[in-house]
Fold this sequence. Notes:
The protein is an all-alpha fold. It has four helices and no strands.
Amino acid sequence: MSNSVRSREKTKTIIRYVMQDAKDFTLQLPQFSKDSIEYKMCAKITELTQVIQLMHTRTEGNEHLLNLKEKENRKIMEKLEKKIKSRDNMIKELTDELKKSDIEHREAINALSNSLNIEKSSAEGIARERKKISKQLLQTERDLNLAKDDVCRARIIINEKDEIIKRFELLNTGAKEHNEQLKKEISVLRKELSRSQTEAAGLREDQTKLQSSFAASERRNNVLKGKLAQLQSPQSIRSHSAVLHATHNNVTQSGRNTKADLRSSQDEKLSMIVAGYERKCLYRFFFHNGFLLILNYACFKHVEDK
């Protein structure tokens, strides 16, 4: 075998040895020349083995630390699990309490909603009543204003009535004075009545005389009517007119005589009655006889024209 093959086998055995157990060993390098490749490779391998040893020691330390940390972590985990269990129990208790409180809150909310609905309905009723009351208040204010106006009017009327009462009192005092004066005047008038009654008795006698003269004048009037009926022919108009003048003169003379008789009386009423009676007599005379005279005159003129 050549030297190269042998060196390769030796390196393989060293690598196997290192790979099998690299904890505690003292590597005895084969005797190669320092300049040879094998020596350099073996040197490198020794360096690598040392590095591996360091790595192994570090891994063991790390494993020990890891074990310690795992133990601590286990303790911590146990504590945490206990805390978690206690917390879970607390959470369960709290969830139960929350459920109970939720049920209670729901019941309270339902009760509050029912009470709110009742309060809303009552509030609506109260609002309606307030509206009614406000309307009633407005109506009462209007009634109060009207009542105030009525009171003002009543005060004005009372003041007017007071003034009227004062005036009436003044008038009453004046009326009393006037009544006393009237009583005095009535006493005077009664005296005058007694006098006028005595004068009326005399006037009645004069009235009877006038009635007799009125009957005589009516008789004369009837006689004159008969004469006028006879005098309707145109030939007797002149004589009839003379007769009428004579009768008129007689009537006026009789009226003058009655006036002369009445001048002696001092009563004005009797003179008024006599004047009215004369007028009535004259009116009747001219009404009954004037139309006939006009007809006779017209007939006379017609005859003369022919």
